[in-house]
Amino acid sequence: MTQIxxxxxxxxxxxxxxxxxxxxxARIVANPDGRLxxxxxxxxxFGFVPATELIVGRGISSVLLxxxxxxxxxxxxxxxxxDLASQTRLGVPVQVASxxxxxxxxxxxxxxxxxxxxxxxxxxxxxxxxDTALTERAARAMARELRAxxxxxxxxxxxxxxxxxxxARISGTFxxxxxxxxxxxxxxxxxxxxxxxxxxxxxxxxxxxxxGGPQRDGLDSHFAEGAHTVYPGGRFNEHVRPFVDALDAGxxxxxxxxxxxxxxxxxxxxxxxxxxxxxxxxxxxxxxxxLVVTDFNVVTGMRLPALGIELPVRxxxxxxxxxxxxxxxxxxxxxxxxxxxxxxxxxxxAVSAGEVTEERLDVSVRRVLADRxxxxxxxxxxxxxATGTPVRLAPVSLAPVRVDPTRxxxxxxxxxxxxxxLATRRASVVALTGSAPGLPGMRxxxxxxxxxxxxxxxxxxxxxxxxxxxxxxxxxPFEEREGMLAGAFHDGxxxxxxxxxxxxLTLCRAVPTVxxxxxxxxxxLPEVAEAAxxxxxxxxxxxEIVLDAIFGYQPVNGALPxxxxxxxxAVAASRTDVPFDTxxxxxxxxxxxxxxxGNSRPALNHSHENPRPTSx
Length: 616
Prior knowledge:
The protein has 616 residues and is an alpha/beta fold. It is built from 21 helices and 21 strands.
């Protein structure tokens, strides 16, 4: 008696419709208390398919959680999803994926913040630490916390190079230098997955292959005006380099970017549609054998009925194809799963129309099932495992997957996780000018820091004229965009608006002023750098971290992960795909003064646990 491998028995048991459903990754939301969203609760304005219809009615078993309930609520919701999965014919457990949710900044399309999880700086802050060992420890902590909630797929890291300073996605990257970005990407992958993908791992999805950084004019490829990457310096291969490091570290998933390249030998279509990118380069030249998942909504558009919005499909270069034709083109290129698609009949119709064969779908379904088996999500019930012959397929009975909601938030409370999160946030701070000027008993005027927080460090005054020191925390400037989704992408000019700049300079003239800039993008701040008593760059840390640095209670030794340009004009004149190509930057990549710290800390009434998240 020979036991036929579980994956082959599941595959042989699947109908075409079930195979199609396995190749869709649908958006989904949960109610804040962990209940399933069934279309009649106000968990989301996006109008997603209700959970029961999605899982039971359509048979979809891969989902991306789009909102940010607490860790306990996510675990409760996850178990309810698995109850739905048990009602399907094959009982294949639902696999839950997530965009980053351990940072400090919420973005409706790209990043989330859930309570009950550790808080780290934004990914760009990891590059500022330059510490691969710390990055790997941090990513391992993230993986433990995500698995405790029931999340087994991370839609990160971003291995894109930040060579176009106006681009809105730089905070999610590891900076401008190919070598550093590759090393941090690899450490991130090792931390999430471990040495071997297993039941304690989170599968890493490296994006946006082969590099989404050189966006023309810095406009993002979520939108038609940002449909193209450009390579005036001929550096296409340099943008691939960090992905090679991530793949060498064992990344099991890759997400191609939306953009269509200009000025390369490749066809000018969205990367996921290009066989030369997916099959020839990724699978052939680089030897990748894992899952390729498209970025979301490259087949159909995104519908937001509650807001009266319907976004166009992000099928740059193949807009003239029908959805069914796009499906065929994607599988011909070499992808496996369709991100953001919740209608499996499109794939069934593509088979009926001759755009793709069922045998080709089988190749991708095997990859999907193998990934779940490795992650411990496909476990056969003992009774079914005892059957099987070489000529007759055994019945498949899969064990349900459960997590304990009462333990979902526990990992983040451990001393190990608290320590690595705090160490990472502290190590990400960059001192650009000056030295730690704060002394106990100083009278301090502050903007961007609550008075009750500052009161633990100094005497708070509300008039700069009465202050010994001023401290200002500001966000990097950007150009306002109309619309909820476009407005979430901070791009455009890199200088502070004239009124804000004049306010900062006036304050600097009135009193010694420390300015901390949240560097979600490389900011052009020559005047501020000259005028401030001290200038810090941070990447998503709480007020206490900044105050500890200013008052010398903790050392500062982070380094810039990109150049800080002199002006937006200098960026526009540079070659979009070439690192470090702007003329006369104010600060160079790697710049960072050492503030030694070591001052004695008075008794403070605060801790560094659970810093406040911020909405963008």
